[in-house]
């Protein structure tokens, strides 16, 4: 049972970190004072209409791709602990620990993903990430639960104990999640730069708003859609590992039609 005072302490810590981040941005991030004279700075809705009217459709395709891959990611993020409990037979704590390798390796591969995009292009890097993460999630779906919990190697902190009092181990499921985390970095790190490079410097703010509009809308739609699908399948949480790659592959199809958004040469 969690100690009574721990949750308030976590709330204070989270609040302090948010305030610290805001202070760092205020003190150390310098914004340009002037944009090109005479260039209009439309709002988010005007920018959305502009993107929709563009004959190229690259902007519209990447925005909907962002929506679909965040729907897929939210399926894993929101329901993995229940998947681990109901499908793998783990307790909630070990399920959360098992998932923790995904964001850990997302962080570790953030810089390499940007470097790779500089070599082969953002669209190619994102496409590789979408294919890889889809494959890892399908493997989680088709591999039997007992096989997923096969111990691979000792892994302190983010490994899970396979027996009472046993050492923490990296499991086969953990390996799949590690690769998925690295692949998610390929996707997520390069998506916002693609969106802002669709436009001029004066409109970066509004196009950033479009990015967050679609990603936030997916965070609203995704858990509801995924929860409905789980109920439809009689509470089978393993179906999450089919819903997520289906969304990722829809995003991949959209990305294949994107023709702009690569880094602009100085």
Short key terms for the protein model shown above:
mainly alpha; 3 strands; 266 residues; Growth Hormone, Chain: A
Can you give a write-up of this model?
The chain has one domain: MFS general substrate transporter like domains (Growth Hormone, Chain: A, Up-down Bundle). It is built from eleven helices and three strands. It is mostly helical and 266 residues long. Helix 3 runs antiparallel to helix 4 (92-99). The chain is globular. The chain has a three-stranded antiparallel β-sheet. The model is unreliable at 1-7 (pLDDT under 50). A hairpin with a 6-residue loop joins strand 2 (160-161) and strand 3 (168-171).
Widest sheet: strand order? 1-3-2
- Second-tier CATH architecture: Up-down Bundle
Return the CATH class. Answer: Mainly Alpha
Whole-number mean pLDDT = 82
Residue share in helices? 55-70%
The main pleated sheet reads as: 3 strands, antiparallel
Say which CATH homologous superfamily is assigned. Answer: MFS general substrate transporter like domains
Structure class: mainly alpha
Alpha-carbon distance between the two ends? 57 Å
Poorly predicted ranges: 1-7
Rg, Å, rounded: 21 Å
Number of strands: 3
The name of the CATH topology is Growth Hormone, Chain: A
Order of helices and strands: HHHHHHHHEEEHHH
């Amino acid at each position: 049972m969690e100690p009574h005072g721990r949750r308030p302490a976590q709330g204070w810590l989270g609040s302090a970190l948010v305030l610290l981040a805001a202070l760092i941005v205020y003190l150390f991030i310098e914004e340009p004072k002037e944009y090109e004279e005479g260039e209009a700075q439309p709002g988010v809705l005007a920018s959305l209409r502009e993107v929709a009217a563009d004959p190229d459709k690259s902007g519209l395709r990447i925005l909907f791709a962002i929506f679909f891959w965040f729907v897929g990611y939210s399926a894993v993020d929101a329901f993995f602990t229940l998947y681990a409990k109901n499908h793998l037979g783990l307790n909630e704590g070990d399920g959360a620990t098992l998932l923790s390798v995904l964001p850990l390796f997302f962080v570790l591969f953030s810089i390499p993903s940007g470097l790779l995009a500089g070599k082969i292009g953002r669209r190619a890097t994102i496409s590789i990430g979408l294919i890889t993460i889809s494959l890892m999630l399908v493997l989680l779906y088709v591999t039997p639960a007992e096989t997923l919990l096969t111990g691979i190697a000792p892994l302190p902190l983010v490994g899970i104990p396979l027996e009472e009092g046993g050492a923490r181990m990296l499991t086969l499921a953990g390996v799949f999640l590690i690769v998925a985390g690295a692949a998610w970095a390929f996707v997520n790190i390069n998506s916002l730069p693609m969106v802002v490079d669709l436009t001029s410097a004066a409109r970066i703010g509004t196009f950033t708003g479009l990015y967050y509009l679609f990603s936030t809308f997916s965070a609203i739609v995704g858990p509801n859609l995924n929860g409905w699908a789980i109920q439809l399948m009689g509470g089978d949480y393993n179906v999450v590992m089919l819903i997520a790659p289906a969304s990722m592959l829809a995003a991949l199809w959209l990305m294949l039609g994107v023709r702009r958004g690569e880094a602009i040469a100085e």
